[in-house]
Structures are given as structure tokens and as C-alpha cells.
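Supplementary Methods S3. Input chains for the assembly prediction are listed below.
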Amino acid sequence: MNSLLMNARMFWRRTVDYSQEYRQLANGQWPQALFISCSDSRVIPALITSARPGDLFELRNAGNIVPPHDAPSVSGEVATIEYAIEVLEVRHIVICGHSHCGAVGAMVRNEDLSKVPGVNKWLDYARPALEPALQKPPRDRALLEYVQRHVAAQLETLSKYPIVKRQIAAGQLKLHGWLYQVDTGELRELDDNGEFRLQNVWSAPTEP
Ligand SMILES: [Zn+2]
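Predicted C-alpha cells for the full assembly:
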């Protein structure tokens, strides 16, 4: 931890070379995307995407979960999503799940979470989508399949937000499902057929 603190104290020195870029950031932010990912320390959105300051508006929580827009209590998630779309006018939202996810693993393995009741309650938002597997988790299926199902379910929840529906219908917003492999760095994208696929790195993505 001390090394991290030292790095933070010295950070301004390393930004000197980018002083012009950093000064411009004081004028505002126009991020390219809202990036929703797990709090897991192995998943670093800026590292994966080579994003610069100002590129990504981030929403991170345990298990990259998107609560329903009409959940009984207001959440930071709903506020962040609304702000990104309505105020920052992001055109893309990425939900990025990852391999070896402790949150998805805990749900699939039906782990005892009595010592972390907040986590247990939080995961209730995501359990229904995994329900068939939770009742009888097949032993021979990798956790990765459940992470994929989980990401797809969070996308579905997100697509039900009124503001998301409206912007998609207007052609102003596109949703993306990603899957990051912690041990290889590979990234899979959810395609139109509902499959997470490795993409050819040499084929440039098309802008909507
Ligand atoms: Zn995770």
C-alpha cells in the first residue's frame, strides 16, 4: 500500500509531459463510453482499452451488476447510468464481465455469504438470471459460461431503463457485452447471435 501512496504523491510529476492534455481536462469531460465492470483488482478498464483520462466514465461494483431502474431504493448505479447518458451524452455503454469472478462464482456455487450480508443482498439482483443453474449447477461447465450468461442478463436489465430505450431507438446509444479473460488478457465480444467471440484484432470496429 505504501508504494501505491508514494506513486500517488509523485503522480503530478509524471503528468508534466502531458500538461497541455491535463489542462484541457479542466474544461470538462466528453467520455467515449460508460464502462461498467467488476470491482475486481485484476480488471483495469483503462489498461484493457488503453484509455486516457477523460475517455471512460466508469461504474464499478461487485459483480458488474446493473440493478433494475425501478428498484425500491435509489442506487449509485442508476444515478451513474442516467448521468452518463443524459448529461455526458455517451454513445456507448460496455458491460465487461470477467473470468474468475468471485461474485458470479459465489452465486453459482451457492456459497454461504452470511458474513457479508450486504454482498448477499446485492447479488439478489443477479441471481434470477442464473436461477436454472443455481438450482443444480452442472459440475462440468466452466464458470465462464455463467459469467457470459450474467453479462447478457445485465445488458437486458440495462436495456429496460427508459432512458436507454429512448436513446437506442433514436440511434444515439449502443450497448456492448464484453468478457475479459484475466489469465490471458483476451477479450470476447457479444455478437448479434448471442455468442461471446474473440474478434480479429486487425478488423476495425464499425462506428454506429
Ligand atoms: Zn468479478
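Residues 21 and 124 are 42 Å apart (CA to CA). The pocket of zinc ion is lined by residues 38, 40, 63, 98, 101-103 (CB under 6 Å).
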